[in-house]
Structures are given as structure tokens and as C-alpha cells.
Amino acid sequence: MENSVLHKAATRGAADHGWLNAKHTFSFANYYVQERIHFGALRVLNDDTIAGGMGFGKHPHDNMEIITIPLEGDIEHQDSMGNKAVISQGQVQVMSAGTGIQHSEYNHNQDAPLKLLQIWLFPNKKGVVPRYDQITLDLADRHNKLQQILSPNPEDAGVWIHQNAWFHLGNFDKGVETIYDFKAKENGLYVFVIKGQVQMNDQLLNTRDGYGIWDVSQVKIVALTDAEFLLMEVPMIV
């Protein structure tokens, strides 16, 4: 029996700190809703806009898989492993926090806002050696098709994490449709619409809506307008 949950964009938690405008799909910081703590292994989905030159000072994480996807602008990253990097649109950053890391994230540009998605997943093993990686993706590979950007396998396309999860990005023209086949039957799929209007099976989704579906083996996706979206297949039991 198919199960699903709908999170409309306007129902997300919101925090406006002046330099940071954040939208939280799941409970985070001062936003807490018991029914919206996580979707399976997907713990955090934050949609952040950061003012020029501003950002998060050094802070700790442990035992979490952290994925950052810039939507506009550039992120300046430093961490306790000695990494210094700038991550731009078209790239994906991943950190396995494991036994513990500290890092900082700033808007690399002084004169333009930074927009990004930050995603946390519960790992399938604790106490791993912390690691960092970033990759550059070919944007053409998501035009009217699904581009894999994350998996559990280091040899596969995209970054890899300590979890039985797969992420894909799509940038579809109006009218394009596809079928997404689940990689693991015990997983669920959470879709986040970055922009546009998409239909997932019978569910209509608009910009910044989120929709989780599980106990199915595949999902039909139709772009009702030009649309960009992120698919996150994750274990439902953690």
C-alpha cells in the first residue's frame, strides 16, 4: 500500500536573521514539529539564502552525512581536516562527520546572495573517520533526464556517503516525463521542487514543495512547466 507525506513550501519553518533567511522542511534549531523530525534517514533539508560576505563560523558536527548543493553563488568552506575550498553552482559538497569535525561556511561573494540546500542524512555506521569531498557536475546531464549526484558506492557517479541512499537532479522542459525506479525496496523517495511545477504520480507539486513516498517500487514524474527538482531515495528505517 502506497504511503506518502506532503510538505507544502509555505508550511516550512522559517528563520530570518537578517544575514540568513532559512527555510526548514524538517525540525531544526528553533523550529520544532513532532511530525516533521525526519523522513527516514533524511534528517535535515534547509533552504538557505545568505547575504554577501556572511555565513556560519566554525561549528561542530558528528555522526551525520552532510550534503551541500549551491543553487546560486559560491560557498567558502574551511574545516578542521585542513580543507579550504570554494563550492559553486554545478558542484556538490559532501562531509562524513563521523567521529567529529568542525567547519565554517561563508558566502564567498560580498555583492550577491548565496542560495543553497543543506541536507543531513543519518549514517548507517557511526564513528567513521571524517572525510570531505566535492565534485563538479555537467549540467547538461540533468537536462530532460535524471543525473545521479550521490550514492553509497565510491565507484558510482556523484559523491558517496555512508548510507544506502541515492540522489538525482533533474532539469526538465515542460511536458517531459520519466519513471524513477527505486534502487532498494525498503527505501522511500523524497522529492524537493527547486522551481516549477511537477506531478509525482497523482500529486501536484509547486516550487519549494516537498513530497515523500514509500511502499512503492517506482514513481512517474511529469514536468507540467519547465522544472528543476531533487530526488532523494533514502532508507525509511534508521
Could you walk me through the main structural features you see in this protein, from its secondary elements to its overall organization?
The chain is an all-beta fold. It has two domains: 3-136, Jelly Rolls, CATH 2.60.120.10; 139-235, Jelly Rolls, CATH 2.60.120.10. The chain is 0% helix and 55% strand. The chain contains no helices and 22 strands. Strands 1-20-17-22-15-13-14 form a seven-stranded mixed sheet, with no helix packed on it. A seven-stranded antiparallel sheet has the order 2-3-4-11-6-9-12, with no helix packed on it. Strands 5-10-7-8 form a four-stranded antiparallel sheet, with no helix packed on it. The model has no long low-confidence stretch (mean pLDDT 96).
Compact description:
It contains no helices and 22 strands. It has strands at 3-7, 13-16, 20-24, 42-50, 55-61, 65-72, 74-79, 84-88, 91-96, 101-107, 114-121, 131-136, 146-151, 159-160, 166-172, 177-181, 187-195, 198-200, 203-205, 210-214, 218-223, 227-235.
